[in-house]
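Hello, quick one for you while I still have it in my head. My current little project is about how a certain protein chain folds up. You're getting the sequence in one-letter code plus the fold written as tokens. Would you mind checking whether the tokens look sensible for this chain? Here's the protein in full, and shout if anything looks odd to you:
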Amino acid sequence: MRSLERYVHALMANAGDVMAVVSRDGRFADVGAASLRVLGVLPESLRGTLVLDCVHPDDRGEAARRLACHGSGVPTGAAEPFICRVRHWEGGWRHMEATARSLLNDPDVQGIVINARDVTDRVEAERRLRASEALYQTLARSAPVGIFQTDREGGLVFANPRFAAIAGLTPDALSGHGWRAALHPDDRPRLDADWTRAMAEGQPVLLNLRFCGADGGVTFALCQGSPLSDADGRVQGCVGTLTDMTEYVRTADALLMAEARTNAIVNAAADAIVTMDGEGIVHSFNPAAEAMFGVPAADMLWNRIDRLIPGIGPLLQDGGLAVYQPGGQARGAGAVREAMAVRGNGGAAFPIELSVSAVETGGRRIFTGIIRDITGRKRIESDLIAAKEAAESADRAKSAFLQIMSHELRTPLNAVIGFAQVIEMRLLGAVEVDRYTDYAGSIRQSGEHLLAIIDDILDLTTIEAGGLSLSEGIVDPSALVGEALNLVAIQAGKRGVPIRIEMEDGLPPLSGDALRLRQVLVNLLSNAVKFSRSGESAMIRARRGAAGGLELSVIDTGIGMTAEDIPKALTPFVQVDQSMSRRYEGTGLGLSISKRLVEAHGGALRIDSTPGRGTTVTVDLPPDRIVTGL
């Protein structure tokens, strides 16, 4: 028996686990050497101490029960392992897995043999695993996305409640391949094909899926999965997430619809619409802007708008910033401002009307400019202003004309009436026949003067009404000039203004209205005589024009006109000197009638004049008025 005791002691000394013999009263009778390594306590320090003093208070009850069972003296054989916490010398606790065997009736042992193995690392690992599992389950239950695990064929092994909610099924209906029943029929073939390929290649799964609810609604979901492989690298299944994308899809569709509506409005707008940032860099350029500026949108995107609107910088500051509030929403358009723009790259300038609004997005200011080409409006405004000024000028001309006509008509009428009364009343006596004859001549001259005024007015009225018709015929330039000179000879003689003639040899005949052309020359010669001082000469010149037509010029060295007065002289009923005390009589119709008669022949009437040095009026008749072959 001594040999058995020695064997037990040797076993306790060399065991890796803590071995101990406990007496019937629950004290250590013998302790193996492993106690120092495992519990940091020398075996000698434990001998004679109570076993329960080393056990954690929470575990003492079960330990006492088990010792009592073994201490009944009846051998019970190997008992189930029992894990309890035992104090370490440093003050902590170690988890020990103990098995006990009662050998109290063995005379060589007379105690309970305990074998305790340190399982602290295992217990801690199991605790951490349980905590991790609990955390995973908590996260899986509370996750806003569906979490799942499948086998290689795609059958569900695990799915959290969110997965069931997205699929529109109960948790029990999800297991295995039941979840596929909720898939949209059009998505199932694509899922099978992509899943099979991903499992075969060991690649991640990324699918857009649709689930059909019992109420007929459709849930859009994004399925993302990663393959699960065993130690040999064989794919055994997949883990992943299922994200509800319904709101995102609806929002994206709404944004696309809104963008499509906005683009349709912007593209159909008649005005140019341009968006730009605070530095004037263009972000969008609608078709109306392309048409207005003659530049494709591709050439303007991410380029500066001041290429087309040089002065837009201050307009952005004054217009856009006036309605911009940092951190605020889009505000109404700023004040409408006018500016100048250019077509194309360095093209012609044209006026625009610009309205700018501003909005802050992503910490940046975006400006939207609505641009309108106002070239037509400016032209209309200019035409209206010109028409208004012309109407006012015509009104003033009418008033001046009435004043002039009152004077021009009263003067000869006074003579007619006065001389007629003298003759009628024989105020000079019956014998003054010669005097009465002179008075009758004065009456005739005044009547002719009145008739000339009336003829001029009627001529102008006919021309302006479009009723002028030319009696075309062959006209000899020499005869035309001679006849005109004869008609003004008496006037020139009375004024003491001789008229010289300068005729180019061999002038060809003309096609035209001889009466109207003579009227033109008579009007021009009459003006030359009227505005020349006595003793000065005037000249009429006829020659071929530079373009091959006929050029007729009337030249005087009279009072002349300024450049500003020439348009007045060509305006009907207007004279350069409109005052009632003017030196030169006349209705102011001669030049305007002459100009229109010349234009009726396809020609042009030019006036060159210098104050104090005289006037040259030139009639240019076109080459097609020259008659050849006669």
Summary: DSSP finds 18 helices and 22 strands in the chain. The two ends are 173 Å apart (CA to CA). The CA atoms of residues 609 and 615 lie 4 Å apart.
